[in-house]
Amino acid sequence: MSRIRILPDQVANQIAAGEVVERPASVLKELVENALDAGATRIEVAWEEGGKRLLEVADDGCGMARDELYLALERHATSKVRTADDLGHLATFGFRGEALPSIASVSRFDLASAEAEGAGHRLRSEFGVIREVAPMARSRGTTVTVRDLFAQLPARRRFLKSTDTEHAQLWGVAARMALASPGVHWTLRPDRGAPLVLPPVADPGLRLAPLLGEKMARLVPFVNGEPPWRLRGFVSPPDLSFRDRNHLYLFVNGRAVRDRLLLAALSEAWSGTFAKGSYPAAVLFLELPPEAVDVNVHPTKAEVRFRDPQRLFAWVRGATEEAWAQLRGGLASVLELPPKPLEAEFDLDPSRRGEAQHPRLWSDHSGGALAAVQAMADAFETRPLDRPYAYATAPSAAAEALGDGHGLRFLGSFQQTYLLVEVAGEAGPELWIVDQHVAHERVLYERLFLRRHAPAIQPLLPPQAVRLGPEAVARLAPFLEELQAAGVEADPFGDDALVVRGLPDFLADRDPQALLEDLLARLEREGRVDLDTFRRDLNAELACRAAIKKHHALPADLALALVRDLLACQVPNTCPHGRPILKKLSLADLERSFGRRV
Length: 598
Description:
Blueprint: H1 9-20, H2 24-37, E1 42-48, E2 54-59, H3 66-72, H4 99-104, E3 108-114, E4 118-126, E5 129-138, E6 141-147, H5 154-158, H6 163-180, E7 185-190, E8 196-198, H7 208-212, E9 220-226, E10 229-235, E11 248-252, E12 255-256, H8 260-270, E13 282-287, E14 293-294, E15 305-306, H9 309-327, H10 342-345, E16 346-347, E17 358-359, H11 368-379, H12 397-402, E18 408-414, E19 418-425, E20 428-435, H13 436-450, E21 457-467, H14 470-476, H15 480-485, E22 489-492, E23 497-504, H16 512-526, H17 531-546, H18 556-567, E24 582-586, H19 587-593
Parallel strand pairs: 1-7, 11-13
Antiparallel strand pairs: 1-2, 2-6, 3-4, 3-6, 4-5, 7-8, 9-10, 10-13, 11-12, 14-15, 16-17, 18-19, 19-20, 20-24, 21-23, 22-23
Domain DNA mismatch repair protein S5: 208-325
Family: Belongs to the DNA mismatch repair MutL/HexB family.
Keywords: DNA damage, DNA repair
């Protein structure tokens, strides 16, 4: 008896489902793509329990006849490919004929369709076995209903995430599909909240705010090229940035894709316009001839391969770079700006001087983040840099290893960035090379964070409604209870917004929208709320922004005041991000390097 057997169709379909059907969101993607390929002008999507209990997609497309309902559940049955040559110039979303049989094999599946008004048919199957096909009265189009996904495959079902997570994933897919098809009337009906109705529009920019949040309405449109080679898109102005890449949306011929080549081209294009660690928002629609892109490289068609990647990379980079350059309005990028004047970094008002002039804890040119620094600094008695802190009445152990702060003599600076200081060390004279930016960053950080008391909750009067968009609100929903416990009092306000009623006192001056977006990125990365760590990281960021920048010349008294305050810090060796602050060279080391000592 042969050990090699042909798998039964049901088993083969369930294996194929493992490639095509990862979660409810992938089912939604396949069903909506079929609706668009059928020429639908109206699509209605509904789901319950994150799509695990119910997922339904209804359209007004061309519909199917009774015999086609059977064929639709056969593997590799498709109306979109006739010959192998067709694969070289695909203009449809689906073409493999695997999606419907794969979905039907792992769910209770209903397929109702009609080619004309009135006369239609309904097919009902359970986990790959057709139970009934019956006539029904319905309008032209197709409705696919998927219930109890993976109910007979408990191992697969256990790999699904929480209902909240799956709900958020469904919003993400729906948002991308609706963005890419602005001429289609969409109705999204989740089992929580009111439906989202999107009438057809000529300009996809009109869908940015309802789908992605109010901030995205600020994106600026641009066009480069003409069909069949055209790049249309929307990019954020230089004053709108985010802490992660979650606001980049890429479409190739209407298909949402993840592509490293396009992301690399974007990354090079925004370099110099946005600071390191900040990311813009962008929604790009790339239109190419079908033969210029291969979509048949991934089971879910989420990745593509370009026929001429070098040409495409240069084009996308150049087009988006030009779009951001125009938004700068001829101003230099952040990498080209000249050093800020000294007065912006220091308080040189004679009425506020002590024996020397001392750096301020903030500057006026860094926007709202530094306003928060000022408010926090005022709250716990800002002190000039040469006064001891409450926690540092004696040098720390690390500071004692560096020196006691006496016998300092400022020699000058190198590149107006590195302070050169002579120190009377215990074993003889030493030369210290101090990075002024990270030294000041350490001093500010210990003032901002280490002397803070436990935060109190400050109510916002009036409460502020923050519109993040349905997808972001759905992603944030699982963490609302933990946020409440951490002092961020926020409640759902419709499907696309939260109302913020209170914040911890050290965050009271933060913009609630920016704060929630920062928290969401952190929560999804870490899966929990650790207020102490969040405060520590926030203050490290604020201290970095407020600290003296490189290429700023410091007078001798300011330089020495900064070094003395560094020695009063608990951790004077490194900045809050772990970068070294100073290098030491003893006289003996120097003499050996010049051959004066063996």
